[in-house]
């Protein structure tokens, strides 16, 4: 670690007896006497002893090591690390929203309930669905909820033998994971050389034991599934439902709607498509939408509009049940509605085409130096199979680490598993041409460096807090406590 540039751990700055605060003398009776001895500490906690300026400087310097969409270009494929407009933050922080309690009487939170209801309607229109629930906390949580809706639908018809979910081999890892958590068996369907689902491989897999087929469109390779009408027909003829993983909805805004493609159930990642904060494990939101005829299976509670124009929270008896505390992440939903209303119908229609334009611009600009396994028009993202010149011995992981030296977050690497050296890039529609050109120049520079000075690339990163770590040792024996140093 470069100590001069990045500083030291807060424990290393500690000096015995040093204080950054002073509390008034305790004039209250001894409260410890009423606490059982088994609950009291036998020694003081091992906390650092530092003064206030040291604390402020330490954590301010640490914060500058954090990479985020506010600090630089974030080309992380399949995650849509979109810029978060600051007006969204202002709306979510309004005291009228931030000071509410989730269990207040409905009459005292009519504005918040109207926000919920308006967002439900907006997402239903955007997705081509009949109704949405905002309750799930994240995309994977939305997948699980959607699959639970599908199971409830089949159970309501007495069709209990539908226990399988078909998932493409290019799917996000959450798809089979969510199906497994929902108690369903996973069956894999192969992809064609052009990256799309192989309909001929799918057809014999469809029988009366299949509950659903999960798909992403465009898929994880950024390719639009042009055979989706035939796939939808085959799935429905087999009595199964078609599930839409909304992780890649961003390029579809203003262009196509999953409901119109034949999907029955879908989730939307608000933290991807609608610019709410993303990363670090949260916050998130994965609303789930359903076609007409499946509304009754959505989880409770839900917000409804009463005949007199007021709003209330209901929990219908036939509903799936609760999948989250109250109604999900309210502040995230406030941000998403702010984004939707700020752009309006015409603004949202520009998102998909611009995301597609940016992705194809980078792809075409770099395919001379990086191997493009699937030619043709992509949507929001694309996948290279590492460097075009394989003789250098430089891997995708090493290219990604070298990007860190240039101030860029690395793209997604080694996913999807269809290619040995996958490098997935998604620029989103929010990046300017100047930003894209700078990124393209750096990627070309790394490709050239891999030929002229491969050891520099292989030993990267060089200018980060920790340079050239042993990845295997770090994974097997992580140091997470100061006392373990």
Structure commentary:
- There is one protein chain.
- The protein has 485 residues and is of the alpha/beta class.
- The protein contains 16 helices and 12 strands.
- The strands form 3 sheets. It has a 7-stranded mixed β-sheet, sandwiched between helices. Strands 10-12-11 form a 3-stranded antiparallel β-sheet, covered by helices on one side.
- The longest helix has 37 residues.
- The chain is globular and about 75 Å long.
- The N terminus is likely disordered.
Sequence-ordered SSE layout with sheet pairings:
Blueprint: H1 3-6, H2 52-63, H3 86-92, H4 95-98, H5 110-127, E1 131-133, H6 139-156, E2 164-168, H7 174-181, E3 185-189, H8 199-202, E4 210-215, H9 228-237, E5 241-246, H10 258-261, E6 265-268, H11 270-273, E7 288-290, E8 302-305, E9 311-314, H12 330-366, E10 382-385, H13 396-405, E11 412-413, E12 422-425, H14 433-452, H15 454-458, H16 471-476
Helix pairs in contact: 3-12, 5-12, 6-7, 12-14
Structure at a glance:
The chain has 485 residues and is α/β, with parallel strands linked by helices. It has helices at 3-6, 52-63, 86-92, 95-98, 110-127, 139-156, 174-181, 199-202, 228-237, 258-261, 270-273, 330-366, 396-405, 433-452, 454-458, 471-476; strands at 131-133, 164-168, 185-189, 210-215, 241-246, 265-268, 288-290, 302-305, 311-314, 382-385, 412-413, 422-425. α3 packs antiparallel against α12 (330-366).
Order of helices and strands: HHHHHEHEHEHEHEHEHEEEHEHEEHHH
CATH architecture of the largest domain: 3-Layer(aba) Sandwich
CATH topology of the largest domain: Aspartate Aminotransferase, domain 2
CATH class descriptor name of the largest domain? Alpha Beta
**What is the typical, i.e. mean, pLDDT?**
93
Percent of residues in beta strands:
5-15%
Identify the strand order in the major beta sheet: 1-7-6-5-4-2-3
Number of DSSP helical runs: 16
Number of domains: 2
Q: Could you give me the name of the CATH homologous superfamily of the largest domain? A: Type I PLP-dependent aspartate aminotransferase-like (Major domain)
Radius of gyration: 26 Å
Shape: globular
**Structural class, from helix and strand content?**
alpha/beta
* Number of extended strands: 12
Distance between the termini: 13 Å
Helical content, roughly? Answer: 25-40%
Q: pLDDT below 50 for ≥5 consecutive residues: which ranges? A: 1-5
Characterize the main sheet.
Answer: 7 strands, mixed
């Amino acid at each position: 670690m470069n100590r001069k540039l990045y500083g030291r751990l807060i424990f290393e700055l500690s000096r015995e007896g040093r204080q950054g605060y002073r509390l008034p003398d305790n004039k209250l009776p001894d409260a410890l006497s009423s606490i059982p001895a088994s609950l009291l500490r036998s020694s003081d906690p091992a906390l650092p002893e530092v003064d206030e300026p040291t604390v402020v400087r330490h954590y301010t310097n640490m914060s500058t090591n954090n990479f985020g969409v506010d600090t630089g270009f974030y080309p992380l494929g399949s995650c849509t690390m979109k810029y978060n407009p600051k007006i969204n933050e202002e709306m979510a922080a309004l005291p009228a929203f931030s000071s509410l309690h989730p269990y207040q009487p409905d009459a005292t939170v009519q504005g918040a309930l109207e926000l919920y209801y308006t967002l439900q309607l907006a997402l239903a229109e955007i997705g081509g669905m009949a109704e949405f629930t905002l309750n799930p906390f994240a995309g994977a949580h939305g997948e699980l909820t959607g699959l639970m809706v599908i199971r409830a639908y089949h159970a309501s018809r007495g069709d209990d033998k539908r226990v399988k979910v078909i998932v493409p081999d290019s799917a996000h890892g959450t798809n089979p994971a969510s199906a497994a958590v929902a108690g369903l068996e996973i069956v894999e369907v192969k992809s064609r050389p052009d990256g799309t689902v192989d309909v001929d491989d799918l057809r014999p897999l469809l029988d009366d034991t299949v509950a659903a087929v999960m798909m992403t469109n465009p898929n994880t390779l950024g390719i639009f599934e042009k055979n989706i009408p035939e796939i939808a027909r085959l799935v429905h003829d087999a009595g199964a439902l078609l599930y839409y993983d909304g992780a890649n909805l961003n390029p579809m805004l203003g262009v196509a709607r999953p409901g119109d493609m034949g999907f029955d159930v879908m989730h939307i990642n608000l933290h991807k498509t609608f610019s709410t904060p993303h990363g670090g494990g949260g916050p998130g939101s994965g609303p789930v939408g359903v076609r007409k005829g499946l509304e009754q299976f959505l989880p409770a509670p839900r917000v409804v509009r009463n005949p007199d124009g007021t709003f209330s929270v209901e929990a219908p008896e036939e509903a799936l049940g609760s999948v989250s505390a109250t109604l999900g992440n309210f502040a995230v939903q406030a941000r998403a509605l702010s984004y939707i209303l700020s752009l309006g119908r015409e603004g949202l229609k520009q998102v998909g085409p611009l995301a597609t334009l940016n992705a194809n611009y980078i792809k075409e600009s770099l395919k001379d130096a990086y191997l493009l396994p699937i030619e043709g028009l992509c949507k929001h993202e694309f996948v290279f199979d590492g460097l075009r010149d394989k003789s250098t011995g430089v891997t995708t992981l090493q290219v990604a680490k070298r990007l860190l030296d240039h101030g860029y977050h690395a793209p997604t690497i080694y996913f999807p598993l269809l290619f040995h050296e996958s490098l997935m890039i998604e620029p989103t529609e929010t990046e300017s041409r100047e930003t894209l050109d700078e990124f393209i120049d750096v990627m070309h520079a790394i490709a050239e460096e891999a030929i002229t000075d491969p050891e520099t690339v292989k030993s990267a990163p060089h200018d980060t807090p920790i340079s050239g770590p042993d990845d295997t040792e770090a994974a097997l024996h992580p140091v997470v406590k100061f006392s373990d140093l």
